Amino acid sequence: MAVKGTDLVKLMPKRQGCKDCGFPTCFAFAMKLATGGAEVSACVYLSEEVRAQIEELLAPPIRPITIGQGAKALAIGDEEVMYRHEKTFFHQPGIGCLISDTEDAKEQERKIKALKEMQFIWIGRTLKADVAVVQSASGDQGKFSALVKKVVEMGDGIPMVLMADTIDLLLAGLEACGKDKRPLLYAITERNIDEAINKLAGLDVPVAVKADGLEKVSVLTEKLKEAGLQDLVLDPGSRKVWEAVRDQIFIRRAALKQGFKPLGYPTITFPCQMTGDPREELAVAAALLTRYAGIICLSDLREDVLFPLTVLRLNIYTDPRVPMAVEAKVYEINQPTDTSPVLITTNFALTYFSVANEIEGTRVPAYLVIQDTEGLSVLTSWSTGKFSGETAALFIKKTGIEGKTKSRKIVIPGLLARIKGELEDEMPGWEVIVGPREASGISSFLPELAGKC
Ligand code: SF4
């Protein structure tokens, strides 16, 4: 629940004519604070107690947590809405692969390699898994530390979850990994919480909290917070799919709608512990992905599981307020020469990749002019005036394409045959050709056109 400026006003020092924070009144400062336009520290007249109270009120309803470090660090939490269409989801869940110290070395190395290398290019994005969940199943400190070291050496900086039954094992894993790598320690439970507070407080690494049920999880997070451990990730212990989905929804709702701080943290989930069948595991992972999981741990990385899951994730975590767009410029495909034809379309990512892939498939050298239409598709950009004969001509001239090819043939999308006359008027000397209505038509259209160029 977003804090209201009027709630903050009540806490302000109200010093007449002060303005030391840069705002004309305490009221104006409070209003800015509530919308994120000012820092609490700008008012030096707040007592420590009130400052802490304001910081608590301003804290995001779901705490942001970072696992790992550097370019591959995984950021989860810090979400603001129940439903994507209300705004957007900000941090996509990390997809993890379980690697156990009881697996043989070859199997461990195969999984680490898959975490590093298995990837898919989709609409210009690279889709892959994000986190190694390193498990001490043997309970043997030496084996666990050796596996953690192996992941560090082979994993190319991939973030880690260290998973063990005892705090001492977790500390051994942390030492093997290095505290600076910020692994997530899994898990603090009712059984080990006092030992965890004694040994982990002050280490500044994120920790997961596991209990049977949300009530018990809340008790643990309150206790940890009081002890100064605040970077928490929740596991409510549910291992049946609909109970797990129900818990994820409850946690999100409690944090966002009721402002219930003990559940205001991201979550970790384990489809790998809910079924032994890879297809069922995919279904469970997909259900949890659509319902707020922060980390999704799989038993293995298979292409037929990871690909659909990462595409689903991309679809859900793409900002619906921002159309997916590519850079507006001239793309040279199949090494075009000074006789190659020119095609033009919009910078909606799906349009670009469909058209570019089809051109590439024909092996016909061509220039593809991608006009900035703010990511709108062909017909939408035409209907909003962003793609017309006039705007296309202006952009074509700006690209300098006239200096690259002498062919003077420009192909427009078949859906926009209506702009042909206008473009011809704007570009004397060019032959405007109406291309296919669908990108799939390029495979037969372009070779025929090339024969005439
Ligand atoms: S510095 Fe503090 S007391 Fe002074 S005007 Fe700003 S909010 Fe009010």
Give a verbal description of the structure.
This protein is of the alpha/beta class and 453 residues long. It folds into 3 domains: 5-58, Electron transport complex subunit B, putative Fe-S cluster (3-methyladenine DNA Glycosylase II, Chain A, domain 3, Orthogonal Bundle), CATH 1.10.15.40; 65-317, Dihydropteroate synthase-like (TIM Barrel), CATH 3.20.20.20; 330-452, Rossmann fold (3-Layer(aba) Sandwich). The protein is built from 16 helices and 17 strands. Helix 15 links the parallel strand 16 (409-412) and strand 17 (431-434). Helix 14 (389-399) packs across helix 15. The model has no long low-confidence stretch (mean pLDDT 94). The structure holds iron/sulfur cluster. Iron/sulfur cluster binds at residues 12-13, 15, 18-21, 23, 26, 29, 43, 45.
